[in-house]
Amino acid sequence: MKEKNVQHEAEVLHQKKLVLENIKAQEEERKRIAVMIHDDIGNRLNILSLWLNNLDTQGDEQIKKNIYSQMSSLIDASRSISHSLYPVNLESVGLVLYVEELIANLSHKINISLQVMQGYEKKDLFVEVQLYRIIQEFTTNVIKHSDATDIWIYIKDYPDNMAVVISDNGQGFEYEKVKKGMGIKNIESRIKSMNAIHKWKKSFSNKGSRLIIKIPKYHEFPNQTSTD
């Protein structure tokens, strides 16, 4: 029995590592494409916009207005695509500011409040990217599938772990009925990749959904020992 338990734990650890490696590979490819769009296409569009601005003003004003309008739309679209593929600037600005930007961009759709408790310390890039993705996925799901008017995000550092709680006041859901959906799968895969634990619960006043995540301070997986 002891040998079987050791083998089972080793298999579970192996599966978690496979998830981690898969997500890391996906993020690297997303980053490569996002940086290409952000740095290449975005910059080229900005340069074209500057050139148009310096054209002889005797040209057809309506045509120029139409071109400016299209250029502006293309710049916004390339930025949006880049942002959705990979949070390119997260490394420089950090998780908190990036989430605040997400909140500002969604402010016309839903009220989102972010509470970061005093003492929060910047995490390594992999963890912050996964947390941002989880928050992004959660808010997208709520906006698409719920009648919620509010989302709350709570982040706090503890000596041994970091706690993240995301909740809303929408219709909520039955976990067993929706756990196979891509949104839930994506969230749980990212949680697993951080070697974290989580729980889905009913939100306050028995409305909406609530996701509680605890991420160990040192989220790396231990070296797998041989079971031979």
What does this structure look like?
The protein has 228 residues and is α+β, with helices and mostly antiparallel strands. 57% of the residues lie in helices and 16% in strands. The protein contains 7 helices and 5 strands; from the N terminus they run ααααβαββααββ. Strands 1-2-3-5-4 form a 5-stranded mixed sheet, covered by helices on one side. Helix 1 runs antiparallel to helix 2, helix 4 runs parallel beside helix 5 and helix 5 packs antiparallel against helix 7. The chain is globular, with a radius of gyration of 22 Å. It starts with a helix and ends in a 12-residue tail after the last strand. The C terminus is likely disordered. Keywords: Kinase, Transferase, Two-component regulatory system. It is an enzyme of class 2 (transferase).
Give the gist of this structure.
With 228 residues, this protein is of the alpha+beta class.
SSE map:
Elements: H1 2-53, H2 61-85, H3 90-93, H4 95-106, E1 111-116, H5 125-145, E2 150-157, E3 161-168, H6 175-178, H7 182-193, E4 197-202, E5 209-216
Parallel strand pairs: 1-2
Antiparallel strand pairs: 2-3, 3-5, 4-5
